[in-house]
From TrEMBL:
GO terms for molecular function: 4-hydroxy-tetrahydrodipicolinate synthase activity. GO terms for cellular component: cytosol. InterPro entries: Aldolase_TIM, DapA, DapA-like, Schiff_base-form_aldolases_AS. Pathway: Amino-acid biosynthesis; L-lysine biosynthesis via DAP pathway; (S)-tetrahydrodipicolinate from L-aspartate: step 3/4. It comes from the Bacteria. CDD domains: DHDPS (cd00950). Its main location: cytoplasm. It comes from Chitinophaga ginsengisegetis. GO terms for biological process: diaminopimelate biosynthetic process; lysine biosynthetic process via diaminopimelate. It catalyses: L-aspartate 4-semialdehyde + pyruvate = (2S,4S)-4-hydroxy-2,3,4,5-tetrahydrodipicolinate + H2O + H(+). Pfam families: DHDPS (PF00701). Keywords: Amino-acid biosynthesis, Cytoplasm, Diaminopimelate biosynthesis, Lyase, Lysine biosynthesis, Schiff base. This is 4-hydroxy-tetrahydrodipicolinate synthase. The active site is at residues 135, 164.
Length: 291
C-alpha cells in the first residue's frame, strides 16, 4: 500500500445554487488538487456530505471521479455506515475496479461495543473486493475505536491494510504505531495535528485542508516523511491559522468557504449543513487575501 503514503485529500462535493451536483466545479477541484501534488484522492468521505447524497448520486460520483482522475493518482472510495449488512450490499453494487482501497468509517449512532466494531469490520473486509482502510472519528461516530481493537483487526484480518486515525488522542495513536504490523499504514485524519503525528511515525494524512492548501500541505507531509522537519514546520505554521478558521464552525462548511473564495465552487450545501457565518467568512477572506 505504498501508494497510500503521503497526502490524500477527502474531496468535497460541490453543489449549484439549486443544490444539484456541480460537475464542472468537481472536475476543477480534482485537477487543482492533483496539480497541487496530492498523492491520492478520496471520494465519498464525510467531507463530501455523503449523508445527503442519494444512492444514484454516489454511483455517479464514483464513476465521474475515476473518469476525471484518469489514473493520474490512486482513488479511494468511502463505503461506510452503521448498518453492516447495508455496507456489504453497497460493496456488491459499487464500481470499485479502479479503486485502490475503500475507506470505511466506524459504525456511528448505535455506539456498539468494541467487539461489535471488530465484527463489523471483519464482515466488511470479508465482503470487500478491495483493501479496507479503517476510519476512527469518535467526534462524529460517538464511539472511540480503541488501540486494542484497531491492532486486533490489523493483525487478524488480512484485507484490512490501514487506519485513518482522527481521535485526537496522541497516546492512542502512538500505541497503534508502536504495535502495528510492519506493512499496516497509520494515516492521520486531523490536519492541525498531522505534523506531530507524522513525527510519531504516521505514514501520511487524509486531509480536508488539502482541498485548498494542496501544494503547501502536500509539501509539508512530504518534507516530514523525509525527516526534513524545519521545512515541514515552516509550512505547518504558515497554514495553522487557516486550520483554525476552517474547522471553527463546521466541516465541510469551512473548507467550502475557502474554495468559494478561491473561485472553485459555489458556497452551497444541503441541509442540515449551512454555510459559515458572515463573520467567519470575512475572517477567512482576510486571511486568504494575505496568505
Amino acid at each position: 500500500m505504498e501508494q497510500l503514503k503521503g497526502t490524500g485529500v477527502a474531496l468535497v462535493t460541490p453543489f449549484k445554487a439549486d443544490e444539484s451536483i456541480d460537475w464542472n466545479a468537481l472536475e476543477k477541484l480534482i485537477n487543482y488538487v492533483i496539480d497541487g501534488g496530492v498523492n491520492y484522492v478520496v471520494s465519498l468521505g464525510t467531507t463530501g456530505e455523503t449523508p445527503t447524497l442519494s444512492a444514484d448520486e454516489k454511483l455517479d460520483l464514483i464513476k465521474f471521479t475515476f473518469e476525471k482522475v484518469s489514473k493520474r493518482v490512486p482513488v479511494v472510495i468511502g463505503v461506510g455506515d452503521y448498518n453492516t449488512r447495508d455496507v456489504v450490499k453497497r460493496l456488491e453494487k459499487c464500481p470499485l475496479d479502479e479503486a485502490a482501497a475503500i475507506l470505511s468509517v466506524a459504525p456511528y449512532y448505535s455506539k456498539p461495543t468494541q467487539e461489535g466494531i471488530y465484527q463489523h469490520y471483519k464482515t466488511i473486509a470479508a465482503a470487500s473486493p478491495k483493501p479496507v482502510i479503517l476510519y476512527n472519528v469518535p467526534g462524529r461516530t460517538g464511539r472511540n475505536m480503541t488501540a486494542e481493537t484497531t491492532l486486533r483487526l490489523a493483525h487478524e484480518v488480512e484485507n484490512i491494510v490501514a487506519m485513518k486515525e482522527a481521535s485526537g488522542d496522541i497516546m492512542q495513536c502512538m500505541q497503534i504505531i508502536r504495535d502495528k504490523p510492519k506493512d499496516f499504514l497509520v494515516i492521520s485524519g486531523d490536519d492541525a495535528l498531522a505534523l506531530g503525528q507524522l513525527a510519531c511515525g504516521m505514514d501520511g494524512v487524509i486531509s480536508v485542508a488539502a482541498n485548498y492548501f494542496a501544494t503547501d500541505f502536500s509539501s509539508m507531509v512530504h518534507a516530514a516523511l523525509l525527516n526534513d522537519y524545519p521545512a515541514a514546520r515552516t509550512l505547518n505554521y504558515k497554514m495553522l491559522e487557516g486550520f483554525e478558521l476552517m474547522f471553527s464552525e463546521n466541516n465541510p462548511a469551512g473548507i467550502k468557504a475557502f474554495l468559494h473564495y478561491a473561485g472553485i465552487m459555489e458556497n452551497t450545501f444541503r441541509l442540515p449543513v449551512m454555510p459559515v457565518s458572515d463573520g467567519l467568512y470575512s475572517k477567512i477572506a482576510a486571511y486568504l487575501k494575505n496568505y
